[in-house]
Write a structure and sequence with these properties.
Blueprint (H helix, E strand, L loop, with lengths): L8 H7 L8 E3 L2 E14 L6 E2 L6 E2 L1 E11 L4 H17 L8 E7 L2 E7 L19 H6 L4 H17 L15 H11 L15 H14 L10
Antiparallel strand pairs: 1-2, 2-5, 3-4, 5-7, 6-7
Length: 226
């Protein structure tokens, strides 16, 4: 499956001048480096093939693409999570969402290739390949609906507290905001973490918001998550 999306590492290296001049780190995750290059890829707009039955060739096109290269730390685990994410990204087809055009898994390289279109949104799996987002996900490498619910809760707590989920201020709590927020909610002291700008306007709405966020980051993937 997804063999039509495979892109040779040699082609990607040629397009990026052997990974020189990276465009930027991306998605707030320093393990991903982004490049912009001209590259041949599978044509999603014209997915039909040409040739005889014994010699089928998928239609390809040349285009400017965004290339995301993962700096793998644990290749075996990262590769499993990479494929889980890639399969989910490949399934998204929407006119307002940037499409996955291809991937490359060769040696230690784990690379995703997306269309480059500033007028579309990038469908980001927030939990993808980040150690602190979801314990069960990083342990099993399995992407479930509950994993995305957890990630949604992480984002909600970031908005609620006005701070990024991971940072040095949380080193005494496993390095992650979620652990502190979960404990503070359970003990009734979460208000001390909330951004003062949003704490007072509507207390009832705030209570509902924090309860939903807390349920999203429940420690286990069971009925306790929305």
């Amino acid at each position: 499956m997804y063999q039509h999306l495979k892109i040779q590492l040699e082609d990607i290296k040629s397009a990026t001048n052997n990974f020189s001049n990276p465009y930027s780190p991306c998605d707030g995750n320093p393990r991903f480096i982004r490049y912009v290059a001209e590259l041949d890829h599978f044509d999603r707009e014209k997915p039909s093939s040409v040739g005889t039955e014994s010699e089928v060739k998928l239609l390809r096109r040349h285009n400017t693409v965004a290339i995301k290269r993962l700096l793998s730390q644990d290749h075996e685990r990262d590769q499993q999570v990479f494929f889980n994410n890639m399969e989910m990204l490949a399934s998204f087809q929407h006119p307002n969402i940037i499409s996955l055009l291809g991937f490359c898994v060769e040696g230690s390289e784990l690379i995703l290739v997306f269309e480059k279109n500033p007028n579309k949104h990038h469908m980001l799996l927030y939990s993808s390949l980040q150690n602190d987002n979801c314990r069960e996900y990083t342990k099993t490498g399995l992407l479930k609906r509950e994993s995305d619910v957890y990630s949604f809760g992480v984002v909600w707590f970031e908005l609620l507290c006005g701070k990024k989920a991971a940072g040095p201020i949380y080193l005494d709590y496993g390095g992650h905001q979620t652990h502190v927020a979960r404990s503070s909610f359970a003990s009734g002291t979460l208000e001390s973490m909330i951004d003062p700008v949003i704490i007072y306007p509507n207390k009832d709405s705030l209570d509902t918001y924090t309860e939903i966020a807390y349920k999203c980051v429940a420690e286990t993937q069971d009925e306790s998550r929305p």
